[in-house]
UniProtKB/TrEMBL annotation:
Organism: Levilactobacillus suantsaii
Pfam families: MerR_1 (PF13411)
Domain of life: Bacteria
The protein's name in its UniProt record: MerR family transcriptional regulator
Gene3D superfamilies the record matches: 1.10.1660.10
Coiled coil: none
Keywords: DNA-binding
GO MF: DNA binding; DNA-binding transcription factor activity
Amino acid sequence: MKFYGINEVAQKFHLTKPTIRYYDQQNLIPNLKRNNNGERIFSASNIHTIQSIECLKRTGMPIKEIKKYIHLIEQGDSTLEK
């Protein structure tokens, strides 16, 4: 599995590194891993999540609601009614 560093992810989405760190601190990026140096490493799934966050932000959805939405997605089909 290929992993990407925070610099690559920041460039891809035109985000600042502090913004990405904030998303992590807010638990918006499930299953985010760190390498042996403690640096965040992003999988394809993590990148897809960031893409979703950015899309939802553009609709005006607040971070609090995005967090709920991502949590529901993480739980799977059992939350479809919500």
